[in-house]
Inverse folding.
């Protein structure tokens, strides 16, 4: 080992190889190719260190005085075991190497630090202490090289200066990358990435990958940003890696997580998700990763095919249920491409449409079709279960907002129902049983319950008879059914209100019973209502088409 010390002050307490190194008021020069090993702490309290060689420290490195390099060739190596602190003071470190004995050993910044030329990060932990000291930053120009061994990453806040557009710059680990394009680029860009192991927990108690992302920049206008978000498989929680997308926490008009479903690419081998084109204004929001696909455990019955204990499957046995979802018409206006090669289950009654609605006000009266944040057509089974296209598993689909929501079930010729507010959860599920009266929202002043008491027990079902699918059942529906009967129409028609695969007086009677029902939801006939155009209306807060 070649080393040279030039003592330029009257007091120097320093040892080339000892358990601790202390420099008070001394001047130390480490020449090129020379090195010093401190088998403990290295403290430069009030002296001057000129390092053109290497300093290896196996404890804390604390610099509260002057540390420099005449040729910008200084190297600081943090090695050894234990949890140690790096405090560089106002000085710049040109070459920093982190090579702790094991990955359970670590280095934590005691204040912000700047690297000028190269970071070599081989083993151990490296943290800017983002939970207790969120302003501490590891800064480096974009010209500095970051070299990472496998499975290591910087916990906390990393800034790259001298920024320019069109280049993917690395931050906390090789897959934490940021690129800006267009507009006027910022002068610097900062990423705060906090994994679960370092206390990373996105705001609010929602479904999430347990890793938190924050971004900031200085200057720049009109640019967009491409970001690659890394994660660890241990942080997935209930999320499926092949589904996860970035989410941002919008704070106005209310605080809620919003998904960025597209454009998104995923690498489940190297564990990262990339999105492009983020507007510069959105960088001020908190970001996370999460699976947008939620499972809806929903039970509902239809009054029309109800037989006293379950629902009849006449449309299915008659072979008239279409293989593609039928809700691509007004008033449903759903353009989904759900289709099956064959009806997957003998117990399928019909297609239904399930919607997730989330108004900004959080009020069910505001949950109109403009607040739909996800929906899908699935199959209703004879036992009331709504299942996905496989005919077995509960229906699941992507949503774009997290938080308390309202679940809507709609059918071709029954009045749709909307739930009361249901909070979202970390498991990614919503559940509602519409056969229980209290589980359906009833609008103030509504003339009838949102669902009707079914025969043979205490279960409730959707009102039958909306033959013209306008959200209200009245004399116009009766007339439409009578016209279908006179024309000997048959098949998969809106006028087949009991879903029997035939249209007859039974369908007329069902509509009449609905119109004549009292506000309790019990089918008590009042003949004076039969000619009324008011009838029974859905409690879903969408406009009624008269």
């Amino acid at each position: 080992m070649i080393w040279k010390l030039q003592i330029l002050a009257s007091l120097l307490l320093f040892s080339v190889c000892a358990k601790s190194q202390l420099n008070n008021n001394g001047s130390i020069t480490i020449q090129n190719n020379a090195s010093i090993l401190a088998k403990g702490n290295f403290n430069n309290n009030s002296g001057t260190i000129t390092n053109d060689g290497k300093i290896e420290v196996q404890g804390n490195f604390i610099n509260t005085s002057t540390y420099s390099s005449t040729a910008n060739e200084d190297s600081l190596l943090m090695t050894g075991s234990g949890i140690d602190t790096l405090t560089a003071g106002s000085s710049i470190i040109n070459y920093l190497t982190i090579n702790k004995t094991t990955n359970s050993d670590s280095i934590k910044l005691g204040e912000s630090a700047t690297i000028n030329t190269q970071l070599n990060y081989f083993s151990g932990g490296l943290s800017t202490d983002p939970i207790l000291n969120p302003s501490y930053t590891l800064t480096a120009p974009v010209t500095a090289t970051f070299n990472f061994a496998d499975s290591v990453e910087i916990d906390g806040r990393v800034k790259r200066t001298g920024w320019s557009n069109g280049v993917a710059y690395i931050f906390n680990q090789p897959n934490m990358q940021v690129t800006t394009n267009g507009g006027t680029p910022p002068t610097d860009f900062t990423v705060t990435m906090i994994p679960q192991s370092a206390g990373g927990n996105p705001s609010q108690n929602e479904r999430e990958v347990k890793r938190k992302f924050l971004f900031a920049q200085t200057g720049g206008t009109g640019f967009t940003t491409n970001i690659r978000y890394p994660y660890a498989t241990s942080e997935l929680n209930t999320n499926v890696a092949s589904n996860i997308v970035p989410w941002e926490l919008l704070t106005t008009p209310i605080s809620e997580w919003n998904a960025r479903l597209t454009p998104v690419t995923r690498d489940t081998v190297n564990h990262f998700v990339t999105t492009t084109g983020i507007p510069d204004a959105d960088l001020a929001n908190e970001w996370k990763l999460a699976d947008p696909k939620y499972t809806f455990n929903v039970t509902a019955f239809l009054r029309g095919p109800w037989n006293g204990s379950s629902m009849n499957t006449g449309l299915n046995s008659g072979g008239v249920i279409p293989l593609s979802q039928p809700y691509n018409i007004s008033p449903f206006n759903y353009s989904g491409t759900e289709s099956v090669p064959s009806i997957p289950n003998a117990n399928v009654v019909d297609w239904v449409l399930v919607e997730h609605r989330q108004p900004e006000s959080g009020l069910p009266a505001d949950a109109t079709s403009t607040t739909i944040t996800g929906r899908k057509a699935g199959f209703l089974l004879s036992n009331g279960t709504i299942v996905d296209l496989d005919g077995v598993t509960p229906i699941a689909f992507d949503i774009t907002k997290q938080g308390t929501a309202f679940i809507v079930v709609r059918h071709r010729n029954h009045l749709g129902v909307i739930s009361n507010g249901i909070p979202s959860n970390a498991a990614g599920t919503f559940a509602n049983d519409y056969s229980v009266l209290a589980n359906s929202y009833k609008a103030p002043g509504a003339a009838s319950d949102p669902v009707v008491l079914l025969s043979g027990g205490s279960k409730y079902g959707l009102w039958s008879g909306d033959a013209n699918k306008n959200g209200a059942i009245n004399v116009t529906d009766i007339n439409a059914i009578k016209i279908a009967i006179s024309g000997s129409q048959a098949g998969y028609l809106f006028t087949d209100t009991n879903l029997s695969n035939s249209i007859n007086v039974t369908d007329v009677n069902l509509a009449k019973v609905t119109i004549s029902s009292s506000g309790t939801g019990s089918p008590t006939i009042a003949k004076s209502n039969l000619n009324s155009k008011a009838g029974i209306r859905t409690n879903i807060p969408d406009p009624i088409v008269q």
Summary: Residues 1-16, 518-532 have pLDDT under 50 and may be disordered. Helices lie at 314-317, 475-486, 505-516. The CA atoms of residues 344 and 390 lie 6 Å apart.
